[in-house]
Task: structure prediction
Amino acid sequence: MKGLQNKTVVLTGALGGIARAVIHAFDHYDVNFILMDVVPEDREFLDSLKSRAHYFQADIASPDVMDAVTEQALQLYPQVDFIIHAAGLYKHIELSDLSFEHWNHQININLNANYYLIKSFLPALSEQSAIVNISSIAGHQGSIAHTAYATAKGGVIALTKSLAIELAPRTRVNTVSPGLIDTAMMQGMSDEKRQGMIQTTPLKRLGQPEEIAEVITFLCSSSASYITGENIHVNGGLYRD
Result:
């Protein structure tokens, strides 16, 4: 794709299934990676990349931690071209069991961290930069026993629309909303529930992380230079907006 070569990419949730696919997609373009996740680094994975990758083990739901990571990252690369927030927390908790602490934790990771991330790197965003936020089908149609998650992901869509106006014309801001994707989240389900969900999807299969990654790289590329404030559904036809 056009306009991706030698750019600097900030990516959260970097060791998750979708994020790893995004990293592989960008790695073809010899980029600079600023990678963040709460888990220890995967040295084997990072060493397999041809691009330059700097990994920060950090809880970016904390503004103080985000400020510290940003300061270190901008010493490495004072200009940022793409921001992708792939960190997320998806927990099955019915409303009767959803404590205020659980609610806040999910809102912090799935929505507030998105705000912290963008605000922290805002002064470093280059001309013709791009931000891709990751929402979810749950943010559009809701989800039983995932109220906090769905609420946060709905907020991500509103955040995207607002920032697309405010940050234009320097920075484009878009959202990708995955459906049922073959990651650890789906793999943890029982076979019965998994198959039941697949049968409700018109394409009759789970999506692959690479299919999300291709849409994200497209939205960052100059091929999407006139697209901002949009949401792209990647869900096999499960939800049609």
Q: What stands out?
A: The longest strand covers residues 125-134. The CA atoms of residues 80 and 125 lie 5 Å apart. The two ends are 27 Å apart (CA to CA).
